[in-house]
Amino acid sequence: MPVGTVKWNMSDRKPTNSGLPDTLLGRRKRLLGSAYRLFYDQPVHIVRGEGVWLFDADGKRYLDVYNNVPHVGHCHPQVVEAVCKQLQTLNTHTRYLHETVLDYAARLTAKFPAGLDIAMFACTGTEANELALRLARARTGASGMIVTENAYHGTSWAIAQITTTYGTSEKRADNIVTVPSPDSYRGPFAGDTHAADKYAACLENAIEELARHGHRPAAFIVDTIFANEGIPAVPPGYLAKAVKTVRDAGGLFVADEVQPGFGRLGSHFWGFEKHGVTPDIATMGKPMGNGYPVSAVVTSSEVVNAFQQHSHYFNTFAGTPVACAAASAVLDVIEAQGLQAHALETGRYLKDGLKELAANQPMIGDIRGSGMFIGIELVKDRASREPAVFETEKAINLLRENGVLIGSTGQFDNVLKIRPPVVFTRQNADLLLEKLSTALTAAGVESG
Amino acid sequence: MPVGTVKWNMSDRKPTNSGLPDTLLGRRKRLLGSAYRLFYDQPVHIVRGEGVWLFDADGKRYLDVYNNVPHVGHCHPQVVEAVCKQLQTLNTHTRYLHETVLDYAARLTAKFPAGLDIAMFACTGTEANELALRLARARTGASGMIVTENAYHGTSWAIAQITTTYGTSEKRADNIVTVPSPDSYRGPFAGDTHAADKYAACLENAIEELARHGHRPAAFIVDTIFANEGIPAVPPGYLAKAVKTVRDAGGLFVADEVQPGFGRLGSHFWGFEKHGVTPDIATMGKPMGNGYPVSAVVTSSEVVNAFQQHSHYFNTFAGTPVACAAASAVLDVIEAQGLQAHALETGRYLKDGLKELAANQPMIGDIRGSGMFIGIELVKDRASREPAVFETEKAINLLRENGVLIGSTGQFDNVLKIRPPVVFTRQNADLLLEKLSTALTAAGVESG
Questions:
Q1: What is the CATH number of the domain that holds A377?
Q2: Please, are residues A288 and A327 in contact by the beta-carbon 8 Å criterion?
């Protein structure tokens, strides 16, 4: 989950560890410390989940509009059963032979273009991106990384370095350079008829900047839906051009599918397919096990063989029979329920509803995205496109009060992020539209 | 799990990805690629686990002598039930309030000395060490890392850099320096009456080496049982002296408790307690959830507050209600069954048996360790202490044939590593001693 995309309770920022009340909030500050954040001005105390619904301790029901981890729905019984059955039987590691990990690896790699036929397992998106980074460095013998501005890729040291969306005291090393997010609405080349070429040309500048510091590019990594960048409408052709530039300089293209993957986008199973470009390495995680910690890297034998000349790979909790049972059950549900087609259909319905809503809501500056991954950019004025930062935060907190859990994203946190469990229905969309209308009106009036 | 501690099947090293037979082994090479390794000359196809037992596809039963992840026994019903119950109810993240994570954080931090009162959650030992490294750098403003030779700390980019036990093509950065493992049997100061002082003095050299490259020490990190270093008998007083030297130079001490933690050592709940030294940061993982992916960092508010000035922390799958339900159930079982005392008692019994065995087995050069973490160093000759490398590998494969799964560790992979589920009994110890006697005799004859 792209953290920091919802404004947190400011009082939660204050570092203090004593004299705190024995409430959940007080205990939390005392026991988890000052580096954790909560959603909402009034944090939610969730005790139960089912499908697209979350329930708080008072029995209040919330429509979940942003949690992508419970891909096939909170606590889906088929996934829970698969996990529990395997937990009762065996839960060891990948240094023994086991069918489940191989069967799943076969199913997963079958979802990729020819040549991307090897699956390696990790536990989190961070770990998958860590492995991708190590593989890319081994394959290219280079160390340069090119990433978009305002990107999120994870939380370890090296991945925090390429997570450009947060401020940090950890100085970015000179082997990491950024390029603008290919944003058709707000970026430096928004509205430009040559936006694809101009954004792609930034990769040449990035490669030159790396060269000035003595680096060659190992990889260009992007979240293929650019979730933290604000889910921008990407100028058609941009990514293919950008990737060609990187490959011409000897670098690989890593598609971070942790957020867009597994059919969420409706039109395609993976985000890279939408851009008409095949990665050298793809990483995936969050929805993969519907909440059980499992992630993966899919790549070619050429890439793995370069890595294995000097290193091998093992991850204790990764690729276990239980992790693969969870991931297999998720694929079963996606396929049996046709959830990719469902995401496409419901996404179109919701987008149509949002366009209607926009006619009466001048704050809605732009609507974009695909399937069950939609961004609504809120602006103070459609002409100036000034970000409606306060109004977005206000709307999110009003929606929370009214039983709808939603978040924001983008450079200014002014893009409402719709990224629910993909089992989200037309009825759920209708409820969202109704509540959104009320909240946007109220947020607009208050700020007006 | 410290990988590479058992010799793998050499045929598994060959990078090839086509023309492989449709056996489990062939499918594995094709689907998982060349960077994965298997245990044993004849890899084991495990299908079921229960307590200290693993069962292969032919129904053959193996005594598990090395898997530390199933701390309270494979597929422990109480842990399975706790996980399944929570999976059916809710599995969200730490941006909502939830009692389970706070209750567990309170129980976990209560196991630590005063001042170490904050728990932060991750999914794997690697991620816990990553967070420890970021915390240490933030707290000290320094970047130098001091690690022991032949250490294992994990698999990400930064942690692979401080994992000194493997060869790698990834050049170690000059902010990382090594010190010898404080080995009383084999190291540079083995047998020296001033070994503790002399090993500790190596920290001064390390700090000077860092200074020559313009670095100050951020942290000295050790696995407090030195598992991959060969489970050495550490000269009494060494660690306290070493830590003082590091602290005097402004660095922190990180205790990696991923392997020794949770009562395995019998005499203490954590490894650092055995050395009479309190860490600034402790990391834990593997046994914590009995196989459910969960890990943690425990530290002080001073350390977290330094970090949170510029960064915050979130990890999607970490500290979830399910992860904390698993971890709580493990603590329940440890406490209800008195497993720390059990580990102490069974460990003493086994060590006594091993000493008796040594009378008739000249290959046994040294027996050491604590509780359910014991090392048996095999040598060709007790006077020269030449490592019995081939014989160790032979014995491990013979034991596998005879229904006992054991591994090796140490610089020369000549230390048999006994690290079973802590529910291991005297009867299990008797069976191990019997099979070990046969295997050592056969391995000695074959090599003789």
A1: 3.90.1150.10
A2: yes
- Tell me the ipTM for this assembly: 0.94
Range of the domain at B221: 77-336
pLDDT mean over B141-165? 94
Q: Would residue B4 count as lying in a domain?
A: no
A15 and B304: CB-CB below 8 Å? yes
Supply the CATH number for residue A303's domain: 3.40.640.10
Residue pLDDT, tens place only, A180-237: 999 999 999 999 999 999 999 999 999 999 999 999 999 999 999 999 999 999 999 9
A3 located within any domain? no
CB A288 within 8 A of CB A258: no
Residue B439's pLDDT band (cuts 50, 70, 90): very high
Q: What integer pLDDT is reported at residue B10 of this predicted model?
A: 33
Read off the pLDDT of residues A31-71 as tens digits, 9 standing for 90 and up.
999 999 999 999 999 999 999 999 999 999 999 999 999 99
Total structural domains within chain B? 2
Question: Chain A: nearest CA to B433, how far in angstroms?
Answer: 24
The answer for residues whose C-beta is within 8 angstroms of residue B165's C-beta and 6 or more apart is B2, B4, B150, B151, B152, B228, B229
Cβ pair B166:A313 closer than 8 A? no
Residue B3 counted as domain residue: no
B233 and B124 share one domain = yes
The set of residues, in sequence order, having a beta carbon less than 8 Å from that of B363 and lying 6+ positions away, is B378, B379, B380, B388, B391, B440, B443, B444
Residues B234 and B300 in one domain: yes
Q: Render pLDDT for B256-273 as a digit per residue (tens, 0 to 9).
A: 999 999 999 999 999 999
Residues B255 and B138 in one domain: yes
Pairwise CB contact (< 8 Å): B37 & A98: no
CB contacts < 8 A (A, B): 355
